[in-house]
Structure formats: structure tokens, C-alpha cells
Amino acid sequence: MDNDLDQIFDELNSVFFEGRLPKYRVRRCQPHGREHGFIDNTTATIWICASPEPRQTLLHEMCHIGTLGHGRLFRAKLRRLARRGEMWAQAERIYYLREEIGMKANGWITLWEVAYHLRGGLSVSAI
Ligand SMILES: [Zn+2]
Question: Rounded to whole angstroms, how far apart are CA atoms 75 and 69?
Fold first, then answer.
């Protein structure tokens, strides 16, 4: 049974989303490529694969409820998580931002540039 993950979903929904997320089932699955998890909105199911950090993966997928892709809306959700102490969410947010602005492979982007694009969010969340 996966009751533990369902319970964690309820807890995270309460703590980070004010209980507003619709109920999704959370199930474990076999390793799925390089993905740690994925969401199936048609069946309201979040699948957690062989993730080293199932809680983080679950939170990531919960941010996908109502928000496909890793664009601006998704990153705003990561920002909220980071402001509530989930520092990995800040790292993910920067990663997706860099990906979006097409500098992922270049490696020369400076922290200042990231901070600029985050409009000061980095300094607030980094405290
Ligand atoms: Zn994702």
C-alpha cells in the first residue's frame, strides 16, 4: 500500500498550499527514464519513481497540479516553496529559469544576471 505517500500529500497540501489542491492519489512506480516522478492529470495520480528525495519529488509534482511545464507560473510556485524554507526549490527555480533563457549550456551566466531576472527574489529567499 502507498498510504504513506497519500498522507504526505495531505500534509504538504495543508502546509504549502493551504489545503487548496484537489486530492490526488500518490503511487510508486518503476524507474521511468531519468524522471523521479510524473503527474497524470487525467487520473489525478502522482507517480513517484525511484526518487532519492520522494518528498521533494512529490512537492515538485504538486506544483504541476494546474500548471504544466516549468514556465513562469511553475517557477512562482517554486518561489513560494523556497520562501517557506524549501531551499532546493530555489535551486530548481534557477535551473529552470536558466533553461528558459537558453543559457543552460553556456555556463557563463553570472549570479548577478540570475538575480536580475529573479527581480530580487534571490536575495530575499537566500536569507
Ligand atoms: Zn516538472
Answer: 10
Q: How close is the Cα of 92 to the center of ligand 1, in Å?
A: 10
Question: Euclidean distance between the first and final Cα of the chain, in Å?
Answer: 39
How far is ligand 1, taken at its centre, from the CA of residue 117, in Å? 20
Distance 63 CA to ligand 1 centre (A): 8
Q: What percent of the chain has pLDDT over 70?
A: 77
Q: Helix 72-83 to helix 87-100 angle, to the nearest 10 degrees? A: 160
Pick the CATH number of 3-63 from 3.30.70.260, 3.30.2010.10, 3.60.150.10, 3.40.50.720: 3.30.2010.10
CA of 81 to the centre of ligand 1 (A): 14
The domains of the chain are located at: 3-63, 72-126
Provide the whole-model pTM: 0.76
Quote the ligand 1 centre to 60 CA distance (angstroms).
Answer: 6
pLDDT digits (tens, 9 = 90+) for 7-49: 999 999 999 999 999 999 999 988 767 778 999 999 999 999 8
